[in-house]
Design brief:
heterodimer, A: alpha+beta, six-stranded antiparallel sheet, B: alpha+beta, 20% helix
């Protein structure tokens, strides 16, 4: 079970899990609930260089389209093929099987991101 | 801006954890659990919808039928008692004010159900048309007006028709899906059926009682499945909802919100006012030319109802993959020339591929025409197809 307290968060409702120089990125349950049933996910290709704050993909539900923002600067090293095949994983397991991309980052990439308490305050405010 | 309105079933929806959305000034349940699950339930078993936000008008009087012939596009005076009929209210310039369902309750009594968002426009149009209608009686129906053995005093103020907005007195529920008849026929409290369940025909209504209060049952709907719409007084709505939900438990009935309602009606090729229909749309553009009885004398919109030959027409579009073209997205040709615009679009839950309705130039409207949907900068190939996208098998 993913430890939500060990993740970093953004105000665009992404979560980031750090493992050395590689981070895993997904969207939170809050974002998934707001979107509704996810039916299509567009992710950047492996090898893409992404810049923090830029739009790198799309998460589309039955009713709306959400943009996927890069929370960090780095290079995409892996994308979740399971989610591309079955977008409903974003709703079913937003913090686990519904992860989206893995990115290799420079040191200090997570500075400035929210911790769990700050994110909970944001979504309940 | 006035406060949003809630239906009598608000606390039922809240208890079920529904998400709400604004629709025509009403806070309505958009989903309870999952759009897709609710959609599939309606096609496979049944869904229950709260559509109490819709507007109801009672049209009564000796000239009620003739008045509706004058006010709407169809020949409502020819309806048999017990029937329902889809119709359009047109403006003087032939544009569509609303699409409605009319029920003939008696020789001199009709119920008109209109869209929530158009309630004010329909109310104002009816009021204006009641005022202009008596001159119709004087000019066009002298034979009928003669022969009355009342004195002139008996005519003053008698327009022969009265229209009353009764929307706030009634709640409207819908049960839609193949299990609908089984559920309704086993619902505790529904009694005194004027017509046995198995004899209730499509686009007809029947009298009934629910726990001693009047209930109107209509075999109509907006999903492309078999189903019923139920009209009761506001005070009876919560108990009726509870009774239907209880009866539905053994049949897979689920509460379904407006999101599922939208994908269901889109698959069934049914227009939605504000998307496929508007004040700027003429009936024939939307494929509704058959709703207009053009040889009917003197109805509002008669002289202007024909669309220009190059006016855009409504088509169905299907595509492969999973990326849907949505409302407002352009339909283009291989060179990027804009052919039209999507009015409604989604990834079809039942069919598994993108579907859309769009207005396109007549030259691109032939079935089989290859086009592209501009989906946020990506061109998705699509094909013009006849509507509906989905038809139920029984």
């Amino acid at each position: 079970m993913t430890d939500l307290n060990a993740l970093s968060y953004t105000d665009e409702h992404e979560w980031i899990a750090a493992d050395g120089e590689t981070v895993t990125i997904g969207i939170t349950d809050f974002a998934a609930d707001k979107l509704g049933d996810v039916v299509f996910v567009e992710l950047p290709a492996v090898g893409t260089e992404i810049a923090a704050g830029s739009v790198v993909g799309e998460i589309e539900s039955t009713k709306s389209v959400g943009e996927l923002y890069a929370p960090v600067t780095g290079t995409v090293v892996e994308i979740n093929d399971a989610v591309v095949d079955d977008p409903s994983l974003v709703n079913a397991e937003p913090f686990a099987g519904g992860w989206l991309i893995k990115v290799s980052v420079a040191a200090g990439a997570l500075e400035g991101l929210m911790d769990r308490d700050a994110y909970v305050a944001l979504t309940e405010g | 801006m006035s406060d949003p309105r809630y239906t009598p079933l608000r606390d039922r929806h809240e208890a079920l954890g529904a998400s709400f959305t604004d629709f025509g000034g009403w806070q309505m349940p958009v989903r309870y659990t999952s759009d897709l699950a609710e959609h599939h339930a309606v096609r496979q078993a049944a869904g229950i919808f709260d559509i109490s936000h819709m507007a109801e008008f009672l049209v009564t009087g000796d000239f009620a039928g003739d008045f509706l012939d004058y006010s709407l596009a169809g020949r409502l005076s020819a309806m048999a008692v017990g029937k329902a009929k889809y119709s359009l209210m047109l403006a003087e310039d032939g544009g569509i004010i609303d699409d409605v369902i009319v029920y003939r309750l008696a020789e001199d009594r009709f119920l008109v159900i209109a869209n929530a968002g158009n309630r004010g426009f329909v109310d104002a149009a009816f009021a204006s048309r009641v005022r202009s209608f008596p001159s119709m009686i004087e000019r066009e129906l002298p034979a009928r007006a003669e022969g009355e053995d009342r004195s002139f005093a008996g005519f003053i103020g008698d327009r022969g028709v009265d229209v009353e907005d009764v929307s706030d007195e009634y709640a409207l529920l819908a049960v839609q899906g193949p299990a609908s008849e089984a559920i309704l026929s086993s619902t505790t409290g529904i009694t005194d059926l004027g017509t046995p369940w198995a004899e209730q025909k499509y686009y007809a209504w029947a009298d009934a009682m629910f726990l001693g209060s009047p209930l109107l049952l209509a075999r109509t709907g907006y999903t492309g499945e078999d189903g019923f719409e139920l009209l009761v007084r506001v005070a009876d709505a919560p108990a009726l909802w509870d009774a239907l939900v209880e009866a539905g438990q053994g049949h897979g009935l689920v509460p379904a919100g407006l999101a599922a309602r939208d994908t269901l009606r889109l698959e069934a090729g049914m227009p939605l006012y504000g998307h496929e229909l508007s004040r700027e749309t003429k009936p024939s553009q939307a494929g509704l030319g058959r709703v207009v009885v053009s040889d009917k004398d003197g109805f509002i919109g008669k002289g202007a109802v024909d669309a220009a030959s190059d006016a855009p027409v409504l088509v169905g579009l299907v595509a492969e993959g999973k990326r849907a073209g949505r409302t407002g997205y352009s339909v283009v040709d291989a060179d990027g020339v804009v052919l039209g615009e999507i009015t409604s679009g989604a990834l079809s839950p039942t069919l598994g591929h993108p579907i859309a309705m769009a207005y396109v130039a007549p030259s691109s409207a032939a079935e089989g025409t290859a086009v592209f949907l501009d989906v946020r900068g990506t061109r998705i190939p699509a094909t013009v197809t006849a509507l509906p996208f989905y038809r139920r098998t029984k």
